[in-house]
From TrEMBL:
Domain of life of the source: Eukaryota
SUPFAM superfamilies: TPR-like
Matching InterPro entries: TPR-like_helical_dom_sf
GO cellular component: chloroplast
Name recorded for this polypeptide: Tetratricopeptide-like helical
Length: 295
């Protein structure tokens, strides 16, 4: 169902990107890591109001995913191929790090700081989130290459040059990340204008999500946001949400605030925007709050 697919998309990218990061000192083959699929059960001794996804996917077996950064994590790893990728994950992999190293130290603290930063962002404390993300980098400098969350926060603080740098660093590590390519463009459109930003556009691999393939092409080549929304208006709830979100962001890059507002508010008020724990659903709400748009 929709929730199962959401869980699969939500937890895929971190398990390739962060495992590679954490295991790199141990000379583990990147090829082997990137072909892993991880099935895991995260067990918390506290109730969790947000993460109650389940999936029948052969890649994942999931139960309650705790928001508590101090929750205990149990997991198993099995090898398979063609692990799906989606960059929007809202949990750390501190359990994986502990299992590999026998302890976390500053790296574990860095992952906890990232979790705190994500929680603060969801709550609308954008400055506080950046402080936590920066603290994570101080604790473990390797994290910077994977902190797409920091780039998003920097955008909403109008720190566009730093945001673009963050996304470019991340795309260098993950050259198939459609959304970070788009967010780099959004930052640079604010710095140089949309025409110049498009000349600097980061080309990435093919996104498995139809809505994001269309959004990527729209930002890369120019296009019609209304058409993007129309194409996915009768599709899945998540597709309509993402079409509305990126239509609004496209209009913002063109300095068309009124049209941006229509679509960003629509994304927040969509069924997916209202009920999903997707980090980007929180971002849409933060966007409207930063622009002082009523929902």
């Amino acid at each position: 169902g929709e929730d199962g697919d959401c869980a699969l998309a939500l937890y895929s990218s971190i398990l390739t990107r962060q495992i590679i990061l954490l295991l790199s000192p141990l000379s583990v083959s990147t090829t082997k890591i990137s072909s892993m699929a991880v099935s895991w059960r995260m067990i918390s001794n506290t109730s969790n109001p947000n993460f109650h996804y389940s999936s029948s996917s052969p890649f994942f077996s999931t139960s309650t995913f705790p928001k508590n950064p101090h929750a205990s994590h149990l997991f198993t790893i099995s090898t398979t191929h063609n692990l799906p990728r989606d960059p929007k994950l809202s949990t750390s992999v501190s359990g994986i790090w502990d299992a590999v190293t026998g302890g976390g130290g500053s790296s574990r603290e860095a992952l906890i700081a990232i979790r705190r930063g994500m929680v603060l962002f969801r709550q609308g404390d954008v400055s506080g989130s950046v402080a936590e993300f920066d603290n994570a980098i101080k604790l473990d400098s390797r994290q910077k290459a994977y902190l797409w969350q920091r780039g998003l926060s920097l955008y909403y603080l109008d720190r566009f040059e730093e945001g673009a740098e963050q996304f470019r660093i991340d795309v260098a590590q993950n050259p198939n990340d459609t959304e970070e390519s788009i967010w780099c463009f959004l930052c640079e459109a604010q710095l140089y204008g949309a025409t110049e930003a498009r000349k600097r556009f980061l080309e990435v691999g093919r996104d498995p999500r139809p809505v994001m393939r269309e959004a990527y092409n729209m930002f890369k080549d120019g296009g019609d946001p209304e058409k993007l929304v129309a194409v996915f208006s009768e599709g899945r709830a998540s597709e309509y949400f993402y079409a509305s979100l990126y239509a609004g962001l496209y209009y913002e890059s063109q300095n068309e605030a009124d049209k941006a507002k229509v679509h960003l508010v629509a994304s927040c008020q969509s069924p997916y925007g209202l009920r999903s724990d997707d980090y980007m659903a929180s971002l849409a709400k933060v966007h409207c709050a930063c622009r002082k748009w009523e929902l």
